[in-house]
Amino acid sequence: MQHTCTCIAIAIIILILIYLAETNGKKHGCVEAINDLRKSIHEDLTNMKKEIRSELSKRSKQGKNAKKVTAKDVRKMRAGIIEHINAKNISGELPRIAGFVRLAFHDCVGGCDGCIDLDNEENNGLGEYIEELEDVYARFSRKLSRADFWQLAGITALVVSGTDCRSCMHPDVQFMAGRKDCAASPEYAGEMRKFPNNGGHADIDDVLGFFETTFGLPRSRPELAVALLGAHSLGRTHLNDSGFQGSWDSTQSKIDALYYQDLLNLKWTQQESKNNEGDVKFQWSGSFAGRSTNTMMLNADMCLRKVINPVDKNGHSACTLNNCRDQPETIKYVELFAVNITAWEQHFKEAYTKMTTTGYEKSQLYVPV
Ligand code: HEM
Ligand SMILES: [Ca+2]
């Protein structure tokens, strides 16, 4: 209302000024001044319109989110996501499973808010999954926030990964809604969010410290971080995204304990990985009985088994698998989860739920009924 009155008042002033210019102000300088004034008023009006539009869109979004999503809606969305996951099969693998779980993780760094900063190299590769999910989200965007939808996609991907898989973990994470998107969703315009030291050159302090400060997983319970990192049982690394290459285990679409079993049982040697820009990073390459298994571990994974620091600026450790000490804080959990899927499942569920509710009080989230 206030905006409308201001607009009318400004319009009247313009008309008076034009009238004065045309009747009395014949002098060139005066016409010029009036034209300048007219231009600046036009700009002000355009800005004002923009403000009004953005305010209205904010209000309608708040209205949308105020309506609760139902269990029936969620079932429909899950079906849409599952169809989408199954639609992309590359050599028998379903890469969207890993892509959606990684997206769910990255969105919760700094609070799960439906926003990913694609200028942050740590998020390389996520753009394609965001775009792919937009097609499905477009059908449901009136029902829930993008932040909720991405978490539903992650949970659904975990379910698909465990379907018809007896050796898989089935964490059955409860979906909760109520997350709010940041203003520029799905883009992010704030300060750069922090990931563990250079995404992979991490040691145990980086890894456990990161999970404690970012997701509130207490340092005194390292089993939660060990269980959560078992998500690397899914998917793979990409040379042109992170600078690493290969998958952690041979079952990229299955969330099974091979990740922990390989970490313990394979022979791991450090190998240089060089991307197109010539950046060098070290990773651990697996072999068994003298043969390469085409699998890899990041320092962030290997440090759960061995004390690998100090590492140099490229992530090369001073010790080898044989002469690095066992990691006292975490190796027992790697050993436990390698053989006890129920123990992994319980800890994973607890840690994953904490991660995916980062930034929210219990009272802000609800289980759709
Ligand atoms: C210390 C913490 C972590 C580090 C340093 C780390 C690092 C990485 C790196 C470097 C990649 C490869 C990206 C690429 O080249 O495409 C990756 C992929 C992946 N990460 Fe992590 N990660 C961490 C924690 C997690 C967590 C907590 C989850 C989920 C709960 C997760 C799930 C995944 C998945 C599923 C992929 C495979 C993505 C694909 O196949 O496209 N990561 N991670
Ligand atoms: Ca696997």
Question: What report would you give on this structure?
Answer:
This protein is mainly alpha-helical and 369 residues long. It has helices at 2-23, 28-66, 71-86, 95-108, 126-137, 146-162, 204-215, 222-229, 258-265, 299-302, 331-339, 341-355; strands at 236-237, 246-247, 267-274, 280-288, 291-297. It has 2 domains: 71-192 and 358-364, Peroxidase, domain 1; 197-351, Peroxidase, domain 2. Helix content is 48%, strand content 8%. Strands 3-4-5 form a 3-stranded antiparallel sheet. Strands 1-2 form a two-stranded antiparallel sheet. Helix 1 runs antiparallel to helix 2 (28-66), helix 9 crosses helix 11 and helix 11 crosses helix 12 (341-355). The longest helix is centred in the N-terminal third of the chain and has 39 residues, at 28-66. Calcium ion (CA) is lined by residues 233, 249, 251, 254, 256, 258-259.
Structural topology:
Elements: H1 2-23, H2 28-66, H3 71-86, H4 95-108, H5 126-137, H6 146-162, H7 204-215, H8 222-229, E1 236-237, E2 246-247, H9 258-265, E3 267-274, E4 280-288, E5 291-297, H10 299-302, H11 331-339, H12 341-355
Calcium ion (CA) binds at residues 233, 249, 251, 254, 256, 258-259.
User: How many helix segments?
Assistant: 12
Task: Pick out the low-confidence regions.
Answer: 52-64
Mean pLDDT: 88
- How does the helix and strand content classify structurally? mainly alpha
Q: How far apart are the termini?
A: 39 Å
Cα gyration radius (Å): 27 Å
Q: Any ligands, ions or cofactors bound here, and which?
A: protoporphyrin IX containing FE, calcium ion
Q: Just name the CATH architecture of the largest domain.
A: Orthogonal Bundle
Counted up, domains total 2
As a percent range, the share of strand residues is 5-15%
N-to-C order of helices and strands: HHHHHHHHEEHEEEHHH
